[in-house]
């Protein structure tokens, strides 16, 4: 049987299917995964990992005969795909099967911010409704202008989910897409014109802190920032300062710079909604992601091809 090194968690179904064709070596069962790899890495054929853990350079160096890395997630910024490609290692990910779920998370975060669901839930639980009367009014989602930073697979799904709310969708990415929404070549200009900015680009060097102080100030005190992309896309220190100063109105965040650590200053603010990176985390969507993660490995084992390579490995 081929040897599979598994980083991070997997569903029972994934483990069952993989166990039929691979000998699975789980990093989570090892006291020192690096030491295990240094000793046994030459015998490892495949790696299964996820978008958060990726594959550390030191792990890669200890895997001279690796054939493929299957990532349980669409974002693969934690994997050095160029280094993998140079070694002849194909990297796969799980595009499309999570579009709807992550889009729901983005829209849900926007709604929770606008309609102050957390505040009002706390209001009822604390008995304040009875004592103080009706809660203060909130803001309507309907009719807002929403700027999508990264109109790719998930960005388009977000735009589709927003349509029934009569929102005006505009977008920024490096190049215009074949869509009817207004395109902004400049992110600050877009931020100035929108009520809500939703970030859904990949992470990595090209998007590092592109949502900076200038963008947040352009979004302004009545603006809402939603981040379901990667923590690295937003300058977290600038975000905390903008929210504390009231230069930015609200933020709904699923992702953070140093997950699972979330800065204390952010946790203290009541104009933010914080989620523990659960954009795709439903039973249904994780099953679909898990199936594709496993299918990529099984197909490579069978005939050396894969179903969903990352773009950098598409011609391998
Ligand atoms: P995708 O289809 O590749 O779309 C990415 C979009 O970002 C494209 O429109 C791209 O357009 C744009 N983009 C890339 N680099 C950019 C830059 N430097 N500046 C501006 N725009 C840029 O990817 P997807 O499948 O929608 O996934 C997007 C990302 O969502 C993933 O990579 C992952 O980080 C994140 N994600 C998060 C969760 C979660 O649980 N929170 C779940 C799934 C995915 P251009 O190339 O024209 O710039
Ligand atoms: C996962 C994600 O939570 O697909 C992505 O890019 O961020 C999420 O779906 C992540 O891959 C960790 O498993």
Your description of this structure?
- This protein is an alpha/beta fold.
- The chain folds into two domains: 2-97 and 283-313, NAD(P)-binding Rossmann-like Domain (Rossmann fold), CATH 3.40.50.720; 99-274, NAD(P)-binding Rossmann-like Domain (Rossmann fold, 3-Layer(aba) Sandwich), CATH 3.40.50.
- Helix content is 38%, strand content 16%.
- The strands form two sheets. It has a seven-stranded parallel sheet with strand order 8-7-6-9-10-11-12. It has a five-stranded parallel sheet with strand order 2-1-3-4-5.
- Helix 1 packs parallel to helix 13 (283-303), helix 5 (99-115) crosses helix 8 and helix 9 (187-193) packs parallel to helix 10 (213-219).
- The two termini are 24 Å apart.
- The structure holds NADP nicotinamide-adenine-dinucleotide phosphate (NAP) and 2-keto-D-gluconic acid.
Shape: elongated
The name of the CATH architecture of the largest domain is 3-Layer(aba) Sandwich
Uncertain regions spanning at least 5 consecutive residues: none
Mean pLDDT: 98
- Compute the number of structural domains: 2
